[in-house]
Design a protein that fits this description.
By secondary structure, the chain is of the alpha/beta class. Helices cover 42% and strands 18% of the residues. Strands 10, 13, 14, 15, 16, 17, 19, 20 and 21 form a 9-stranded mixed β-sheet that branches. Helix 1 packs parallel to helix 2 and helix 5 runs parallel beside helix 6. The longest helix is centred in the last third of the chain and has 25 residues. The protein is elongated, with a radius of gyration of 25 Å.
Length: 574
């Protein structure tokens, strides 16, 4: 057992509580800890039956396989109305939805035996009021209840059954964990992999229902509606952005497989149509047909199990491979879904962080949009479930995750569950460019626009597949500084007397694009220097200099903001 698992087990056995909540980062080994508790309780005759409650059908089977290895046979095919099970089994596995269908049947089973109930990813007990009520009714008589979670809790007012709440400093009740093992701690213990996020931007164009054609750069400051439309344009399989990013991800996977031969990649898609199109593109790029997982059916579970062991390169899934699904060899991910919430982000990235040997790292390719980059930079933030907290902003980090699990598994209707803005549009075209790498909350990149397939991009795609976290950070810094020195030497060797006239000599469209790019680069540098969010900095510049958002500001307004940021930097340095 890992050190945290042993410590948590000792704490549990010393106190012998009826309810115990363990919060551990994805990939840390919550299943092993829970089955160790179960083995101890069975061995001491404190309990004689086990009930595991999991979010999905696939996870029921995964729990049954893990329990069998621990010598605890459980039946993953049990349903609430089934009645008796074979005497070979010591327990059953059910889903939260299954509990809600017939909680009385499970209550009778719980009362008949001294039962340990394991509530896997317990935050899902609050996904629907009926789920929480079902769990409460079914397992109230249990001798012991062990709750597990590895992702941020919901923030709605539905209390999670059997979780203790205590008022915080502001008087608002918050969940209280009995044992917490966060991502930062797990990373320091080499239990999970560090994650290198590779953000891609690019030029997008689309047509609105009114017939207006809009062109914008992905990641530039825009309204939420425009940001969503730009993201959907980028993820359009018919455009150039997705093929370019998939090709870059495949090159990264090839580099990783030089050191980790069985490393695999996962593309998380929004809907079935997009998933099939991405799979076709990947086949053309890699020369190997990827595994395509479209829905939470028996065939899909078999596909996931086969992919876990077959050493193939890629799997494409419609969001369902997000929470609890254990494929330890996943090392490269591509975020190609419009679902962009903190809970889903934590679940999805959790598929890549499970460490097998020291030095392995994960690489996740992201669209360069503020929300996703914010989640990536806050990987180490731990949050408790807050009751009654008012959500005043729909972009709030703690915003409630209504029906997220249903969306993740009901892939047949995934296209109807897009997190879009409700404004019909037609994607016209997209081009990808490398933006920057994000590692441990710090951004690394090269000045100017980095084209896909360039040497500058390969500085990051070619990073070795086995590096300690400290080595990764040093290499990123070294490659960035080396490229800066090379660029400086080239400019010194070939001075351009017309450099000062470059911006004025180009067309208005190109001029505005250059100025916006320069402004965004300076705002990014200010963020790394001060920690201030990009949006806050842009808002402050608009307040001081006037004018609209940068996406629609004129050249004079953009130059004024550029000068103001430089003035801030000069004053701070002095």
């Amino acid at each position: 057992m890992r050190a945290w698992q042993s410590a948590a087990l000792r704490d549990y056995l010393d106190r012998q509580p009826q309810d115990f909540l363990a919060v551990a980062t994805p990939g840390a080994g919550k299943t092993t800890f829970a089955l160790s508790v179960a083995s101890e309780l069975i061995g001491r005759r404190i309990v004689d039956r086990i009930i595991v409650v999991a979010p999905t059908e696939h996870l029921k089977n995964q729990w049954a396989e893990a329990a069998a290895r621990a010598g605890i046979p459980i039946d993953p095919a049990y349903s609430a109305g089934k009645g008796k099970i074979a005497s070979d089994y010591l327990g059953v596995a059910v889903t939260y939805a299954g509990v809600a269908v017939n909680p009385l049947a499970l209550r009778i089973r719980t009362e008949r035996f001294k039962t340990l109930v394991i509530l896997d990813e317990v935050h899902h007990a609050a996904d629907a009021l009926s789920w929480g009520e079902g769990v409460q009714e079914a397992f109230q008589p249990a001798a012991r209840r062990l709750a597990l979670t590895g992702t941020p809790f919901r923030s709605d007012v539905n209390p999670i059954p059997f979780v203790t709440y205590a008022p915080g400093e502001d008087g608002v009740p918050r969940s209280v964990a009995d044992y917490t093992y966060g991502y930062a701690h797990a990373l320091a213990d080499h239990v999970v992999r560090p994650v290198l996020f590779l953000a891609y931007s690019g030029e997008m164009s689309w047509r609105t229902r009114a017939g207006d054609e809009i062109a914008a750069r992905l990641g530039e400051p825009m309204t939420k509606d425009l940001t969503n439309q730009a993201l959907r344009t980028a993820l359009d399989p018919a455009g150039s952005w997705v093929p370019s990013v998939l090709e870059a991800a495949d090159r990264r996977l090839s580099e990783v497989r030089r050191h980790v031969p069985d490393a695999g990649g996962l593309v998380i898609a929004t809907d079935q149509e997009s998933a099939r199109a991405y799979a076709k593109t990947l086949r053309a790029i890699s020369g190997e047909a990827p595994t395509v997982v479209l829905s939470d059916e028996k065939a899909s579970s078999k596909k996931i199990r086969a992919f876990t062991d077959d050493g193939s390169r890629w799997m494409v899934a419609v969001r369902m491979v997000s929470e609890g699904v254990d494929v330890p060899r996943l090392a490269v991910g591509v975020w190609a879904t419009t679902t962009a919430t903190p809970l889903f982000f934590a679940q999805a990235v959790g598929r890549f962080v499970r460490a097998r040997t020291r030095g392995e790292s994960a690489s996740v390719f992201l669209p360069s949009v503020p929300g996703l980059l914010s989640f990536a930079s806050q990987m180490e933030v731990e949050r408790d479930h807050v009751l009654g907290r008012k959500v005043t902003d729909e972009d709030d980090l703690y915003a409630a995750e209504d029906d997220l699990l249903a969306q993740a598994n009901a892939s047949e209707k995934a296209s109807d569950a897009l997190a879009d803005d409700g404004l019909p549009f037609e994607a016209l075209g997209s081009q990808a460019s490398f933006d920057h790498a994000l590692y441990e909350g710090a951004a690394f990149g090269h000045e100017g626009e980095v084209q896909v397939g360039s040497e500058e991009e390969m500085d990051f795609l070619g990073i070795p597949g086995l590096l300690e976290p400290g080595q990764m950070r040093e290499l990123l810094q070294h490659r960035q500084s080396e490229r800066q020195r090379t660029r400086s030497a080239q400019r010194a060797a070939r001075p351009d007397p017309d450099a000062a006239e470059t911006v004025r000599s180009v067309s208005t469209h190109e001029q505005l694009a250059l100025l916006r790019r320069e402004l965004n680069g300076l705002v990014g540098a200010w963020h790394h220097r001060t920690g201030q969010a990009h949006g806050i900095t842009h808002a402050a510049l608009r307040k001081e200099c006037g004018g609209p958002a940068a996406a629609v500001a004129n050249a004079e307004q953009l130059r004024a903001r550029i000068d103001r940021v430089r003035d801030w930097a000069a004053r701070r340095t002095s």
